[in-house]
Amino acid sequence: xxxxxxxxxxxxxxxxxxxxxxxxxxxxxxxxxxxxxxxxxxxxxxxxxxxxxxxxxxxxxxxxxxxxxxxxxxxxxxxxxxxxxxxxxxxxxxxxxxxxxxxxxxxxxxxxxxxxxxxxxxxxxxxxxxxxxxxxxxxxxxxxxxxxxxxxxxxxxxxxxxxxxxxxxxxxxxxxxxxxxxxxxxxxxxxxxxxxxxxxxxxxxxxxxxxxxxxxxxxxxxxxxxxxxxxxxxxxxxxxxxxxxxxxxxxxxxxxxxxxxxxxxxx
Length: 267
Known about the structure:
single chain, Immunoglobulin-like, four-stranded mixed beta sheet, 12 strands, DUF4843 domain-containing protein, DUF4843
């Protein structure tokens, strides 16, 4: 009986700590996301990306404000001792092409954003719109917007590993989520191989459709990846053996305009 009472008391205390704590917020997904305007008509000048936020600690019958801010990203290069291979120094550099509020996206302190930065009433999670702007710079470079959830007078922070996310966006071809890396950790890699914008454009030219995450998920669900790989391999052979392409220097197709760059291939 004494043990039972102790356990019951412990449960009540744990419940009290759980439900009396500050409401907290974090991101549902911290994986980098890639967005491009390249498929859109010239008249399209902005795009909206939704970032889902999860709350902890129950719901309320009122909208609750959330706070986001942009943070700077850095690359770290380590210097190692040539003999021991131990790290002796490090060089920290800011990542290039940091998005600029008002130029590449609508800033989070902009009045137009205030009514959007909320977890709506009676919801434990919500999707926050991030409005990207189609600046001319995006045709030349991919810009980066690193988002961070910040504590305010409504929400504390949840898991510290789940409060930041990077959006990479441009007005040119971009890797999509399933082709984000040149490794088998990206499911499209086994079918499409090493990424290059030349290869990406070639696939578009052959198939006459958008080649993006939605396309990949559709052929994956249809069990058609082997079929498309075969089609693309045959199309590449046809391109590379076309006398007109050979005489013009377009064939064999390479990853870049550099004549010494690797050849475009499919697995």
